[in-house]
């Protein structure tokens, strides 16, 4: 049983984080989010950032820069229009930060796949 589990982990190793690759990833599985509203989207889907402390802002920028570097996110240009925005906050545990996105508004307009 243990050997089978190790074999499965090895077979799908790209999906797991490692020291060299801090974020697991799979390719070929893009997700399309279907909404139950049409453009122009309601103001609830263009949420401003939450106020935060300088320490939280620094941690948030660090997380965003890391995700941009890994190809998970891309920075938006100054004149680029963004139709949907969601705020993110920083939570702290043992002096370590974690970025958390607030997707409650988006979830309200998302059509379930099931």
TrEMBL record:
The lineage of its organism: Eukaryota, Fungi, Dikarya, Basidiomycota, Pucciniomycotina. This is Uncharacterized protein. It comes from Austropuccinia psidii MF-1. It comes from the Eukaryota. InterPro entries: DNA/RNA_pol_sf.
